Amino acid sequence: MTDVSLIPAHVPPERVMRFDFRNDAEIRRDPWGYIARLDERPDIFFSPDLGGYWIVTRAAMIDEVFSRHDLFTATSVAIPKRDKSVVLIPNNFDPPEHTAYRKTMANNLFSPRALATLEPDTRAFSQALFDSFVPGACEFVDDYAYKLPIDIFLKLMGADLALRDDCLSWIKLIFRGRDADETNRGFIAAAGWVATWLDEQLADPARNPGSMFQAMVASRINGRALTLDEMRSITLMLFTGGLDTITSQMTHIMRFLAENPDHRRHLVDHPEDVPFALEELLRRFGISFIGRAVAKDIDYHGVAMKEGDVICAATPIAGLDPRAFPDPLTVDFGRGNGRRVKHLGFGSGPHLCIGAHLARVQLTVMLEDLLPRMPNLRIAPGTTIETMNGATLMLKALPLLWDA
Ligand code: HEM
Fold first, then answer.
1. Is 282 exposed, middle or buried (0-12, 13-18, 19+ CB in 10 A)?
2. Nearest CA to ligand 1 atom 3
3. Residue nearest atom 38 in ligand 1 by C-alpha distance
4. Contact (Cβ atoms closer than 8 angstroms) between residue 47 and residue 6
5. Ligand 1 within 6 A of 251 CB?
6. pLDDT tens, position by position, 270-284
7. Of 15, 104, 247, 261, whose CB has the highest number of CB atoms within 10 Å?
8. Could you read off the pLDDT of 87-119 as tens digits, one per residue?
């Protein structure tokens, strides 16, 4: 039942429509069909779910919500709104403060030096995971999609790879917790580890040369070193931004390829097309529901919004907008006509995903390394596919079989 107390007086009744991307039964069963049908709704509507929030359903507007920090502030990006005690650098800052953090992160943590071994490490970890499968079968979500990004994160940071299982349990609590309590428990455990781990590293900063940790120590912001609190915030940001997202993305792409042998064969026979195919898959299977807070009272495309209203920029909705992508549900590796399809899967504007290169490397390795070794790939018969959704859409489980 709609909770009318969550509908502010300035929201016109004709724009009120329910949409709960975390819990709607339909989005769990058929996320893409459900999201494609949002196109039949107004360009802007208000859902009383998840604390009450605006949703824009056109790619051009989603681009605007991401980019117009003068209208939409990133100080709050979670839906429902989260406790403001956790501020993540750089995500929760608007320009100009954001620009300084972003610049130093791009120049240091994400520099070619810090990422020098990313590709060979990713290939080695991917092969080790494949070798750990029972021949011809895996539960892709737990056996691969969760593990590869965590291994890479720990390796890049210069942390102990034995921490994988702990990280996995915190990530599952934070993003897939059954309630706010579980989410908080995961967050507190991860933040506790970050604090202790940073203290240990700072006691002996010369170890793990070339790691992201060392790059963080070398970073300067307005001419000074980062404070301990800033380092904690950045590490937690990378932990929360860079793991669950890649996992979610991998699950939809592998499901699609397991169900579509022609597309799979094309990638195995034409590895030179992988970079183009990947962008089309990122367009088709957007995963993120990102929030902003309205920065001041505005008239946005004819709709009155008040300061503090929450508004959602959803990349799955952007990728399925037929105005931007004709026949949007079809995966067409040639869609870009020899160019990479431009999409909003990594956001846009000042907060455009800083980890996009890292994500692309891991997704490319998944396609190049796994597909040729999984002939006759298919989903295990009798499987009911379901998503479990938080800030991203993710498959709950994906049991795969192939001819070993
Ligand atoms: C397929 C994987 C990924 C997807 C789909 C994704 C998606 C996104 C999106 C949509 C945003 C924009 C958020 C906003 O506007 O508020 C974003 C920002 C961000 N992402 Fe990613 N991301 C992925 C992987 C990663 C990885 C691997 C890392 C790092 C290890 C990372 C770190 C970040 C950070 C730090 C930001 C905030 C950037 C800023 O505020 O300037 N992401 N990501």
1. buried
2. 245
3. 351
4. no
5. no
6. 999 999 999 999 999
7. 247
8. 999 999 999 999 999 999 999 999 988 899 999
pLDDT tens by residue, 199-238? 999 999 888 888 999 999 999 999 999 999 999 999 999 9
Listed in order, strand segments (DSSP E) in 128-229 are: 137-139, 220-221, 224-225
90 CA: nearest ligand 1 atom: 40
Predicted confidence band of residue 83 (pLDDT cuts 50, 70, 90): confident
Top mutation candidate among 75, 115, 245 for ligand 1, by most atoms within 8 Å of CB: 245
pLDDT digits (tens, 9 = 90+) for 332-361: 999 999 999 999 999 999 999 999 999 999
The CATH class for the domain spanning 4-401 reads mainly alpha
- Check residue 390 and report its DSSP letter: S
Q: Whose CA is nearest to atom 1 of ligand 1?
A: 246
Q: By alpha-carbon position, which residue is closest to atom 30 of ligand 1?
A: 242
Substitution site in 353, 360, 365 for ligand 1 pocket (most atoms within 8 Å of beta carbon): 353
In whole angstroms, give the CA distance from residue 178 to residue 214: 36
User: How confident is the model over 122-135, as a mean pLDDT?
Assistant: 98
Tokens 């009318």 — which residue?
4
Task: Give the start-to-end residue ranges of the domains of the chain.
Answer: 4-401
